[in-house]
Structure formats: structure tokens, C-alpha cells
């Protein structure tokens, strides 16, 4: 399928660069998203991080889901960094599942390297994602600490499945060029901000 994407997504602009992909509803975006993005940029040696604001997360209810335009705006405000780019590219790719998004991105950007970023809260239920094992075989994966600190991620199904392919944190910078599957778990200072808490606080006001 031929894609018609905004000029921001030209192949030439992103070739020979390594991009961290942080997907999610961003309902709303907040400092916690920025926090893990900045650590990923630094510890993995990334050129940029794309916040991929999903039109609709397949695992989340449409109830209380703000319109995409509002979530995009909250992400622009929260990102506040020249290397963090807010995008609705999944809407242009016409993809719903992460595996399909990655295939489309790799086809459109053949000379760009991608690293999938997610918090430990997502790792615990990652085995519920469509083609979750294939995702680990398509791109390097970086998991970053999210509250609570002791959330038993090492015992979850995904961790157990790919335990032999885990790169230690002290070698995390090698993740972007590692043979696949490859992933790492970064223990970073915690940021307790959450979209759920923000929405709950808004309802009280």
C-alpha cells in the first residue's frame, strides 16, 4: 500500500537515525511520559523519540477516551523537548496493532532503526498484545521502570519467554544494534504521574 504521509515523515529526514517509539493513548500525556523518554534518549543513545498517539488502543475502553486532537495537544504540551516528536502516524498508516505499525514503519523507513519503548506496567500484560512475540523479533525493546517499584516484572510471561535475550542495563547502549530478539530493562528513578490519576482528579473538580 502506498502511503501518503505529512512531510515530517520523509525517508530522507530520518534515514540512518535510531528512533525510540513510545506508543500509547496519552489520555492525557504527562510528565511521566517525558521522564522515561529522556532516560531512553540518554541511556540508549537515541537520536529521537516519537510519541505515537494511538487513535484507539485495542486493549482500552473508548469510555473516557478524549478525542485524538485533544490527546495530541496534551502530548505537545507535555513533551517540551526538541528530540521528542509527537505524532499521529498510526492514523496515517491505518494500523491498529503495534505489530502492523512496526511493519509499516519499517517498510516506509528502510534505513531507519527503531526501538520499542514501554514501561514496566505494559510489560506485565504484553503477552495480551497481538503478535507479541513477533514484536520482539522485529525491533529491540526497552522497558523502563514505572510505579510501583516492586511489580514482579521479571516473573511475567514476556520476561520469562525472552529471558535469554535480555541485555544488562550497563550495556543498554548496545541494544539498538543487537541481534534480535533483544531487550533491556532500565531501572530509573520513578515518576508517579499517571493518566488515570489525572483523569480522576479532573472528575473531582
Structure description:
With 205 residues, the protein is α/β, with parallel strands linked by helices. It has a single domain, classed as HUPs (Rossmann fold), CATH 3.40.50.620. Helix content is 35%, strand content 17%. It contains 9 helices and 7 strands. It has a 7-stranded parallel beta sheet with strand order 3-2-1-4-5-7-6. α3 links the parallel β2 and β3. α5 runs parallel beside α7. The radius of gyration is 16 Å and the shape is globular. The model has no long low-confidence stretch (mean pLDDT 89).
Please compute the radius of gyration using only Cα atoms: 16 Å
Derived from helix and strand composition plus strand pairing, the structural class reads: alpha/beta
Terminal Cα separation, in Å?
A: 46 Å
CATH topology descriptor: Rossmann fold
Could you state the oligomeric state of the chains shown?
A: single chain
